[in-house]
Amino acid sequence: MHVLAAANLRLDANAIDYVLLAFYFVLVLGIGYLARRQVSTSLDFFLSGRSLPAWVTGLAFISANLGAVEVMGMSANGAQYGLPTAHYFWIGAIPAMLFLGVVMMPFYYGSKVRSVPEFMLRRFGKPAHLVNGLSFALAQILIAGANLYLLANVVNLLLGWPLWVSIIVAAVIVLTYTALGGLSAAIYNEVLQFFVIVAALLPLTIVGLYKVGGWQGLVDKISGGPGGAEQLHSWPGNQLTGFGSNFLSVLGLVFGLGFVLSFGYWTTNFVEVQRAMASKSMSAAQRTPIIGAFPKMFVPFIVIIPGMIAAVTVTELMGQNKEALMAGNGAPSGATFNDALLLLMRDLLPNGMLGIAIAGLLASFMAGMAANLSAFNTVFTYDIWQAYVKKDEPDGYYLGLGRVVTAIATILAIGTAFIASTYSNLMDYLQTLFSFFNAPLFATFILGMFWKRMTPHAGWSGLVLGTASAITVFGLNKGGVISLPGQGASFVAAIAAFVVDIVVSVLVTYATKPKPKEELVGLVYSLTPRESLKASTIGEDAGWYRRPGLLAGIALIITILLNIAF
């Protein structure tokens, strides 16, 4: 079966496609080499010396999230579930990104912490810091492995390179530019990669829509297909959540995805927050996720729609294959929903455009993996090694260690790539990881930031038991004790983790002693002077179009209109 699938998926790449790919790789490595000149301290390597403008960090913020897992995973979701997948953007991203910019960045940036776990250290002490540092490091290795598996699979199927060669070549390129230039190299490459990804996917969407007879042609084909008209409206999204009841489906989307999973991911995930921390001012740090929200709201149109087109035009994903795919068994041809984008590229794109599309996929992979690596090396170096192993070494020691750790993380990601390979839809895998790691962390964060009474013991115990409850829900679903198809299991696990974390934190808080109030200034909202949370409005931060609150309001209105329209 797999041999047949590989033969069917092989793209007819020619010399011009390879020249475009080679040029792209030279450009990426060149950016890494140039960024190295700016790296003289560990702060330069891990946080770009806090010197980057908001438009650069804003685009990097989105590109870091627009990895191959996102691009391939969301197109797989588009093929399988249709327009309800847009909830991952309009409900499951933008409100949380705006909240991060307006409410949480002043705490992160103003306290001058170097990472999210370091914020946990100051608010809750060492046990919570260590739990968060270790769980975050593990999550990054698992997610980097998923990115690596996808890329290797793409290169193997498109170009015919053996899987192990694809994995090693891809890993070495990302490792080289991340180890050379640190976060600056990752961020500048992410800005380049954002434009390459759009240049790859926009023509694919336009050509695909032309092939099916425009939007109305796509509507007609999907309405008459196995997915039905339900896939053409984002609400209530029953196929996506796995709930039969419209009310439960909407509740799961709004609370499970829109609140717990989304806010947990965007507001506490250091992969994203690190980009904003690299900004040159408080205002720029606040604007980073808000600027990112504008392109983010339109990404569904170039990621989900190609998946929907593939579902009704690509032979391997149509008709008799649908039932096998729904059951997660792959189609008789060996294809899975993860292949939707590749199959569409195979069918629609001529040479030259094909080279750009392949570069776009490689770009999305590298953006995602570089983000995971740069966040992992910062947290491991500062929050694990410096905090608990070697405390008072010179700065050059930590700079060198950061580069070594980047290499070790790459090797570990090669190992975790095989875990990702067991999932036919990688978004299922990713949402499971987020329910384990991000949902309980968000509960601890939000409670600790707004409730000054919360104690250090509550910080770590809530995290541990919240994570354990998400893993329990996952185990019960896997074992057949409860049955939640689609991504409903991840939503329920996230809600369980959040609720358990809050309950445990409250109970433990009233049984233990809080920190003195003077130690919580800058870490708890009610104890922090309002002036220190306000962004500058003069100099480089002057102008109405640079006001975080106003920009966030505009983004929120557009997002609400998109939810109503679709």
Automatic annotation (TrEMBL):
Topology with respect to the bilayer: Multi-pass membrane protein
Main location: membrane
Keywords, in A-Z order: Membrane, Transmembrane, Transmembrane helix
Entry-linked InterPro entries: Na/Glc_symporter_sf (IPR038377), Na/solute_symporter (IPR001734), Na/solute_symporter_CS (IPR018212)
Localization per record: Membrane
Record family assignment: Belongs to the sodium:solute symporter (SSF) (TC 2.A.21) family.
Protein name per the record: Sodium:solute symporter family protein
Organism of this sequence: Amycolatopsis acididurans
Taxonomic placement: Bacteria, Bacillati, Actinomycetota, Actinomycetes, Pseudonocardiales
